[in-house]
Write a structure and sequence with these properties.
Elements: H1 3-26, H2 28-37, H3 44-97, H4 113-150
Helix pairs in contact: 3-4
């Protein structure tokens, strides 16, 4: 772009801004008349409206953050309830299958094939139970942390209205 083209573009820009300013000034009387009709005392009212809107939107933002924390809390409570249920089911199953008589060798190799299968199943259930209990502890810790953040004094349960 050369100097002549730049000068021409700048001149066009200034002319367009000048025309826009003239149009704004030409509409000033109409604006003042409409403000009077609608009971708007002066231009500062618009600033007050903007400030009210800003305050309102900031309040919505804070409510949204609070709602997100409440949803996280609810999700951790659901995870905790799920872990407790799984742990209960695994414990029941483990106890039902635990009827293997202990032999004098105390070795899985001394068991017959049926007993070996049951023993391996018990080990697998025990591992899953430990995992579920660990997940339950994590869910409980997260829920307690969110209770502190949300100032919740009574743990939410399905019978509470917040649930």
């Amino acid at each position: 772009m050369d100097a002549t083209e730049t000068s021409q573009n700048l001149s066009q820009f200034l002319v367009n801004n000048y025309k826009q300013a003239l149009n704004t000034l030409a509409g000033r009387d109409d604006l003042l008349q409409r403000m009077k009709i609608h009971g708007i005392e002066g231009p500062w009212v618009f600033e007050e409206w903007l400030e009210e809107e800003r305050t309102y939107l900031q309040g919505l933002s804070q409510e949204l953050e609070l709602d997100i924390l409440k949803m996280k809390y609810y999700q951790w409570l659901m995870n905790l309830a799920d872990c407790k249920q799984q742990a209960q089911e695994l414990s029941r199953s483990w106890l039902m299958n635990a009827g293997i008589p202990a032999g004098p060798q105390d070795s899985i190799m001394s068991l017959d094939s049926s007993q070996k299968s049951t023993a391996l199943s018990l080990l697998s259930q025990n591992t899953r139970l430990n995992l579920v209990l660990s997940q339950g502890k994590s869910a409980e810790a997260a829920a307690l942390d969110l209770e502190q953040q949300l100032n919740i004094t009574v743990h939410w349960t399905p019978s509470r209205p917040e649930w």
